[in-house]
Amino acid sequence: MSWLDRPASDTQISHRARLWLYGLGALVLAFLAVPTLIVIPMSFSQSQYLEFPPREWSLRWYEAYFSSSSWMAATATSFKAGFCTALLATPLGTLAAYGLHASRLRFAGLAILALLTPTIVPVILVGIALFYAYVQLKMVNSFLGIVLAHTMLAVPIVMMIVGSALKSFDLDQERVARSLGATRTQAFLQVTAPQIGFALVTSAVLSFLTSFDEVVIALFVSGGDNATLTRMMFLALRDQIDPTIAAISTIMIVMTSLLLAVSQLFGKADS
Amino acid sequence: MTTASAFDAAGAIGDDHAAGLRRDQWRERMGLAGLAAPALLLVTVTMLVPVGWLFGLSFLDDSGALSLEHYRRMLAEPSYGRTFLTTFEISLATTLICILLGYPLAYFLSQLPRRAANLCMIAVLLPFWTSLLVRTYAWLVLLQRSGLINTWGMKLGLWSEPLQLVHNMSGTLIGMVHIMLPFMVLPLYGTMRAIDRNLLRAAASLGSTPVHGFWTVFFPLSLPGLAAGASLVFVLCLGFYVTPAMLGGGKVTMVSNRIANDIELFFNWGAASALGVVLLVITLVVLVLAARLSRGAGLFGAGH
Fold it and tell me: Does A128 touch chain B if contact means CB atoms closer than 8 Å?
């Protein structure tokens, strides 16, 4: 094969001398991608024991999932919590990012640091601290409690996404609108918001996923009628490997991919 | 009125206006900053106050008096030292493996044409957007005694007895490397893409071999990305809970697992909060050191 001896880079190294790099790169890529994807065919197996490739195909684990009232209740809780988190975190984080960006105050950096603490503090600490606080406030196992906790986790993510979108946005455009008679709110809604629309959609999607995927805090502060899907999965996995979870995992993979693909399409149409 | 006093009066009015404008501007800027108030309130109520509360709790003994009992016990009981040692060992091992796997991968991607690299990036980002629990579950299935790795390994004749791959340290490490690898690859890839190819051409034209050019020109220039990735991975590893809990099978106790056990099994709030405070302090110290090292380049910005 002649291409093997052709130079592969500016330093004139040949493809042949680089074969090990291509092999290693492909292996590491496979290590990253394959384990997650292998769950999908396994979820359609007939067998109780997770074998690959499955000998017989069936939808029994999907049936088990959809006919279980406790799995369904937990799924509903997780969806509701995700929606509420996206609904709260997107405006809160956007307001904070916009306000601190436009004010150009010296202590804005301090406020940003305070708002980013949820990404730095180990999540187990947040979990037990919130549990302790919710016990005093009688909010353990409450829906509001889990939504507030997840919103707090999602706000910094929204701030980082919207903040970086605002950095490449020229605030003079708002000044022009306001000099022509628009109020600040009008200027933001009609001039700025449409231009950072993609960042807003991405923020909402990632806020939803942050809540939907969150495990540790949900373990401590959710339960009873308001147990989340991740909490139930975690507890089920600690006891045994239940193939129902393969079905749930597949649904989650498909759902997340669809959500992100749609938000990406939105971004393409936007620009 | 003399001209001079008219000037003074005009100047005074001008000053008034200037002061007024400054006041208005100040008011507007404060109002804008005030938009962050709801978010700040939320983070204060659900995070800063509860964590502060725990902080206070860690300095109280069982009777509620101020004491360093919990910290003293942490120093006296060797099991706590072991927990911290395990946490450091696992974090360090994960970081090293991530460097060993991540550096060649990032280099490979940086050498590909942009379009192909973006396509491969999907594989790097896939773990990012699949739930942590889904991935942990996948590893449980793959690594168990009758799992895919063991059956295929034995079929291929690589080993004859089923290996104990999960519910121990190796399972924990595999799971953690899988989760942390993208955090290593992304900053490395960004840094490598930004390296000026002309420098390598210059090295080649001056007679350096490809390997020599890599080590003397490319590698040093990629170090900031390596430092950013490594410190990020190490810091995030310190706080891991789910992976050691599930893939460690109760045999691997990191600080987070110990904290959860103290609460769930022993209701020992004092011990748990003291551990939490130490974990937080260690995390912050590592972050500050890393920021000093890499001048804060792209350190913040990743969830768990």
Answer: yes
